[in-house]
Design a protein that fits this description.
By secondary structure, this protein is mainly β. The protein is built from no helices and ten strands. A hairpin with a 5-residue loop joins β5 and β6. About 30% of the residues are buried. The structure holds FE2/S2 (inorganic) cluster (FES). FE2/S2 (inorganic) cluster binds next to loops.
C-alpha cells in the first residue's frame, strides 16, 4: 500500500473497460492512474515511472521473459512466463510486474499503487 492515505472512492469505468490482460488509464482527482486486470484481479498504479517519470501505465504489456536452464545450470534460451505479466515503460524500458508493481530485478523500485475494486459492473479506485 502507498505511504499516502487515499480517502475517496472514484468511479473510473465499467468492468468491460478493463479486459483480462488489458488496462484502462484514467484521470482521478488530478492523478493519472492505470487500472489493470490480470488473472481476474484488478490492480491500480499511478502513471508515473519511478525511473524518470515516464507514462509507465501506457507501455506495452508482455509476459515476463524467463531464462531456461538445464540440469547443469546452462542456458537453453528464453521463454515467456504467462504467470507474470509485465508493464514496459515506453521511455527507457523499465519493467514492472502488474501483480506486484515491483521492478523484477530491484524489488524496492515499485509503482505507487491504489486500492481498486469492482461492484455491479463498475470499477472504483480510491485516491
Ligand atoms: S522513465 Fe520509465 S524507464 Fe525511464
Amino acid at each position: 500500500m502507498t505511504a499516502t492515505h487515499p480517502t475517496t472512492r472514484h468511479l473510473v469505468g465499467r468492468s468491460e473497460d478493463v479486459p483480462e490482460g488489458g488496462r484502462h488509464v484514467v484521470d482521478v482527482a488530478g492523478t493519472t492512474i492505470g487500472v489493470f486486470r490480470f488473472k481476474g484481479r484488478l490492480y491500480a498504479y499511478e502513471n508515473v515511472c519511478p525511473h524518470q517519470g515516464g507514462p509507465v501505465c501506457q507501455g506495452r504489456l508482455v509476459p515476463r521473459v524467463a531464462e531456461v536452464l538445464d540440469e547443469d545450470k546452462c542456458s537453453r534460451g528464453q521463454r515467456f512466463d504467462s504467470d507474470d505479466l509485465h508493464i514496459v515503460c515506453p521511455w527507457h524500458g523499465f519493467e514492472y510486474s502488474v501483480a506486484t508493481g515491483a521492478h523484477p530485478g530491484h524489488r524496492h523500485i515499485r509503482l505507487r499503487d491504489f486500492p481498486v475494486d469492482e461492484e455491479e459492473g463498475n470499477v472504483y479506485v480510491t485516491a
